[in-house]
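Let us work through a complete example step by step.
Step 1: write down the sequence.
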Amino acid sequence: DHKKATMLATYGRRGACSVFQDVVFDYYFFVDHACIHQDDNVAKFAGVMALPMQVSVCIELIFYDSRTAAYEARGWTRVERMFAYAFCFSPMLVYIGEDYPNKATDFKALCEANPAVYSQDDEGNVFMVITDPLAEDAALTVPSDRVTVRKLCETAMNVPPLNVALGEAMEAGGTPVSGKKDKKSPLKLGVDKVCLDTIHEKLDVDRLHAEIAGQSQ
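Step 2: predict the structure and record it as tokens.
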């Protein structure tokens, strides 16, 4: 039903930003399935191994959490979140829920439904555990992909996260970014958390409702 494509089109068309809320941006997306060759095995492997480079030139990772298709447990989506944590400029991941842009996500309910992955602090900030792509509960459609995923995990886990400086600057300004105390140490899968950008979704929802209200007057 093309829900993910519709979400991306809406996200790009509205051009919102949770940091610069008065500015409309042009967004350009790297979509793994569309940008990595799916039929030629050699070209596919080359595209997959270039993922760290592709993620490192992105400003943020957006993930669409569908109620009808399990997102978090998929091995390859875990790889992407791992790379975003280690290599992406933004220290936060943008969360977009199933009802976007018509309704904002109930994050309290989300955290209560899956406390092993999501948590919320007293200020309402939502955190997500960077889970292991090779854990027993990780879903990999092609079992042989485990060899490739293991190599990718080694790449991400053997370097300090590249967004350390930005993360420390944001936290110095009072914005929590992660549950990681030693930000210069390599990523610990299943332990380290990343703060979710929940503002972007709410911005688009609130603006859509305001537009609808204005049209009905």
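Step 3: interpret the result. The first strand starts at residue 61 and ends at 65.
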